[in-house]
Amino acid sequence: MSNYMLILSCGPSEGRFHRAEEMARMLRNQGHETTLFLVQNATLAARPSPAGKPLQDLTSQGISVLADEFSLKERGILPAQMAHEISPASLDLVVDALAAGHKVLWE
Amino acid sequence: MSISLTFALMDAPYESSRTVTALRLIDIAARRGYDLKIFAYEGAVALAYKDQAAHANIVHKHDIEEENHPLPHKWIESLHETAVQHKGSIEWVNCDICGDERGIDNYVECTRGGTHVDFWQFVSSTDNTLVIGTTTT
Fold first, then answer.
1. Which of A71, A95, A101 is opposite residue B28, by nearest beta carbon?
2. CATH code, domain carrying B22
């Protein structure tokens, strides 16, 4: 089994958003360790909302969902305003994953 | 032995936040002293275009200095300096075909022109690769 990190940069109204969500679910179903890392407008889905609900549901399947702290700040989203399933994280984690040889894909 | 990473960029400057996030990633890796290979493809060749010029902002009544307009080729030079300071390296290659198509051939000195062969060699020789595609495909 492999370690996958999917980087998602588009907002919840775009097709890529749901494609990444589906890919994360499929990878996890195949037994891979899977992390979804939200950057830029994707962090808008970190707030409790119907649009972000599918991402929040991913965590119940063992998928880690993280949101870039810098992108959150740019959009005025405070940690206290985030869905509890999603954690703020440093972009350093993406470089950590690359350095560790994980498969990192940008949707 | 130092960790080596390849990044492929595709978006033109001033058009997508992806470029800013990509440069943030490269900056983090440069500060760790990693050996980095960057392949600028399609519109991303314009990132290193040396003739980018700062401008004033008449609407906000800012002169050139006050506006302090960001220039991506300056960011690239700064990334190189960061890498060297941390005993790492950046080899930045601009796709020649993409540059020809766009009439861009005047690159900052810390980058060079190259071909897809360079990208293949980067991917083959480094520990890992991240491809950051365009937002339009």
1. A95
2. 3.40.1260.10
* Chain A residue numbers touching B5 (CB-CB < 8 A): 95, 98-99
Q: Are B132 and B38 in contact (CB under 8 A)?
A: no
Find, in chain B, the residue whose alpha carbon is nearest to that of A105: B130
Q: Which domains does chain A have, with CATH numbers?
A: 3-106 (3.40.1260.10)
Structure confidence by residue, pLDDT tens digits, B96-121: 999 999 999 899 999 999 999 999 99
Residue B137 lies in a domain: no
Query: Is the model's pLDDT at B135 over the cut of 90?
Result: no
- Chain A residue with minimal CA distance to B8? A106
Both ends of chain B: CA-CA distance in Å?
37
Rounded to whole angstroms, how far apart are CA atoms A68 and B48? Answer: 26
Residue B137 pLDDT: 45
Q: Given this model, what pLDDT does residue B134 score?
A: 87
